[in-house]
Design brief:
It is built from two helices and 13 strands, in the order ββββαβββββββββα. It is mainly beta. It has one domain: Jelly Rolls, CATH 2.60.120. The strands form three sheets. It has a six-stranded antiparallel β-sheet, with no helix packed on it. A five-stranded antiparallel β-sheet has the order 9-8-11-6-13, with no helix packed on it. A two-stranded antiparallel sheet has the order 3-4. A hairpin with a 6-residue loop joins β1 and β2. It is globular, with a radius of gyration of 16 Å.
Length: 176
């Protein structure tokens, strides 16, 4: 696999080596030792999967008391995936990175603890899979408004996104 550093050093774009032939393709989507050697020693304890329609925006979410490292993959369709640095002591606090992940490009995004995460669905539908390093803890889940002007995320959105009630009521980003 190839690991690329994004505009925020701790967020990594992973490009797996894909073996294709007339039957289809094969690639390793997760290999613990290689991941530890090339990115970070992480133990994932939970896998999540979501199916979303075109125009859906999920996020920006994180867990305060039970922070999670996440490895994001797309099994079907395409998304614009975003990580926002919410670590107050960080020099990149309030900065974001976004990458297009798809079933076609097989790219993955590693988002470490201390980042809010969200994505926007570009295809008719998308199935997103994400590995998490801690269990879901609803009491500590937090959200930031996807369209907060202090973040100025350049979402590739045409028209109003489909939001959950929780995301529509998310709090603004806290500027230092």
């Amino acid at each position: 696999m190839q690991v690329l550093t994004t505009a925020i050093n701790e967020v990594k774009l992973i490009i797996p080596r894909v073996y294709e032939d007339e039957r289809g393709y094969f690639f390793e989507s997760w290999q613990q030792q290689r991941f530890a050697d090339m990115i970070a020693p992480v133990t994932f304890v939970q896998d999540n999967q979501s199916l979303s329609k075109k125009g859906t925006l999920r996020g920006l979410h994180w867990q305060e008391e039970h922070p999670q490292d996440k490895l994001i993959s797309v099994l079907s369709g395409a998304i614009f995936d975003v990580a926002v640095d919410i670590r107050p002591e960080s020099p990149t606090y309030g900065k974001w990175v976004g990458e297009t992940l798809s079933a076609e490009n097989h790219r993955q995004l590693f988002i470490p603890k201390g980042f809010a995460h969200g994505f926007y669905v570009l295809s008719e539908t998308a199935i997103v899979s994400y590995k998490c390093s801690d269990f879901y803890h609803p009491e500590s889940e937090r959200s930031i408004r996807w369209d907060d002007p202090n973040l100025a995320i350049e979402w590739p959105i045409k028209g109003p996104p489909l939001l959950s009630a929780k995301d529509a009521l998310a709090a603004p980003f806290k500027v230092r």
